[in-house]
Predict the structure.
Amino acid sequence: MRTRTLLVSLLLIPLVDAFVLVAIVGMELLTWLQTVALVVLTGLIGMVLVRAEGRSTLRRFQRKLAAGSPPTDELLDGGLLIASGAFLLTPGLVTDLIGFLLVLPPTRYPIRVALKRWVVVPYIDKQTGGLGSGAAWTFGFPDPEQAADHGGDGFEMGHEQATRQSRDGNVDDDIVDVDFEQVDDETEREPQSDS
């Protein structure tokens, strides 16, 4: 199903581009020579923008690596910039519009956020069982039948109840308060008498 949708969209975009170009010339908004010049000009301007944004993204990528943090946003920006370059190289005004949306930072940011939320995080969760995004079970019963066997819903157990409940299911209200004193090895210890 996804392959069909991808093929249809890949065939539909150039078709829409051709219709837009014919409509612009047909409605006499621009002559055919001006339309071709506009397509070439938008492609050239887009390539300059892609190059500048690519350098900026590469610098941010290197700074994040040097700081020791994962450059996830920069990797996604790099992928979006590659896609924008492909759209800007494709002749047509619709593809140029899509390319400009992907290359300009104010419009690329929401696209990157949506891509992370609906594509990257679900894929990582599927591959890691929830460990990639922190959606893994840390306490309680992940199986509703197992929770029902233990007399409740394990998903709604709060943090306080989870830490106070012992393994056999009994709640332990006893609190042990311990005082300690640090003794250095060099100091003399007083002998203790058994009385």
